[in-house]
Amino acid sequence: MTTTIAKFAHLQIPLEDVVKATNNFHDDNIIGHGGFGPAYKGQLQRSGKSIKIAARRLDRKHGEGDIEFWTEISALSDLKHKNLVSLIGFCNEKGEKIIITTYEVNGSLQEHLNNPNLTWTQRLKISIGVARALSYLCYDEGRSYGVIHRNVNSSTILLDENWEVKLSGFEISIKQAVNRMDQVILSEPIGTIGYMDPEIEKTKGVTHKSDIYSFGVILFEILCGRRAYSKNEANRFLAPLAKYHCENETLPDIIYLDLKNQMSPQSLHIFSNLAYSCLKEQRADRPDTNNIVNELEKALEFQLSRENLVKNLKHLTIPLSHIKLATNDFSETYKICHLEGSTMYRAKLDHYDKGNHSSKRYNTVLIKRYPFGNEYYTEMDFLTEIEILTSGVKHPNIVTLLGFCIEAFEMILVVDNISNGFLGDYLDNINNKRILTWEKRLKICIDVAHALNYIHSGLDDQKMLIHRDICSYNIGLDENLGAKIVHFWRSVFMPPNHEDQALHLELVGRQNYVDPEYMNTYKVKRESDVYGFGIVLFEILFGRLANDPIYKKEGEKGLVFVARQNFYTETLEEMIDPIIKEETGENSFVLNRGPNKDSLHTFIAIAHQCVIKTQDKRPTMKVVVKELEKALFFQVSHCSNFILSMPRSNLCDNLL
Question: Ranges for the Protein kinase domain (predicted)?
């Protein structure tokens, strides 16, 4: 003990200085009570400067003593990190044992758990601060040992004037060699009720994963706005309650009410999954500190993205109450379809002219709603779609974003109405399909081709966009059957001047439409959209969706395989939609003629070029537009010539 005292002699502070700093330990200066004893705030004169301090005074009635006192001094004198409380010194005089640290003006986290002014963003930053402190304790390049804290709880997490975390309470901490951090250190169950790792009882000891368990409890305290243990609550312990709600997908029921409207759904998803994993029964299943820090930083990134979006596009925000009113709380009456996680509604929504708040009209709009916790469509996809549709992408054949709602756990886009649904709805329904003459189909193809040519080479500031999910259900049809590309959630901007280069991206898109070179190499280019569009061209030609079972018969490999194998053969012509064989042109008196051969062959040729296996051999959308317009010209000319060539009496008969 004498050696220990001598080692830390430079940190000793006379008792009379501490007494003076705390006004003789006046009750008005008490800032908390812990297992060690009461803590006092004060002003200590040190080297001619006045320092705000916290003086923790050992109360032997609490059962702690010399070992805990010297343990904390030893730990804090060796550890230096911005998220650990700073040791100023200690007093060991006249029976008093006092640990003196910097005073953190915002007190402990425990005091703010149900503080409505502590935002979700601040709570995420606090969580990251604690995680970084634990990561430092577990491993630091300058040390040969790690530290197991053993008393991580919301009262030992202090907050400075900037709400920066300062972890304290090292009186029962244990040092352990870095290469033995996963090994159990024999120990009596010790710590704070509600935070203690249940495995301590089973293994009769602790590891650094015991601190991870305590941290998981703290994450749920932060999320739920309540303490780990509340003896007056029906569910006294928070940890088992939180686990129950996570496992039953009812976590929103216990989230602190004041946080719900602030949260990024994706940040909540990451945060809650992480908190749950920290409480895993088996220590080996709990995450390590580096992973915890990374996940929390990711959650914060989503939250900040949401806040920036709302701030920068405030003029496009639509209250959730307005959308619920328009759809009668998302009634089935207004639902038009459900597509891969999103539900589409059509309704009349109040629209206020931003320049004239007294002007109000009712517009029929399309409302795209994505449910909370959807695995297929993440919040980043939602933000991507908004970013793209508000970044100067304006074209008559691209859907227009009218507004969005990101409130509570809702993610909703409001776009202009697609009154005739989606192209896929027509190709998948024999009655709807009859409306689509060959001429109408060509015009739909040309509309989409113009839109793709625009995003590939017509944007301002040398920008170029790849859609990455061209398919029949991402092509909407307006009241005149004009086509509009919708659903830009998979889309990505190419860097300027990178038109002919590829991006390496994770594979996305529907199975039957994905570019095979992209599938094999993860290289995506403008030509990947061209391939998807080629599939749509064949769908329109055959009158069947790409996933139709007919393409799988007799071991066939799908629509593209059938089209390639039968290029310009009678078999291919046999597969053409019978409806367009019976009707040509836009006029009902031109019947039973079939498509113009030149129009048909021009169409088939460009469709085949679009689905060539190699990206660099596919045509640009500029070329595709030109060929499709040529096919339309042949068809329209054919109809006109046919009408002009008819005897006048026959023409009159057909008109009657």
Answer: 25-300, 330-634
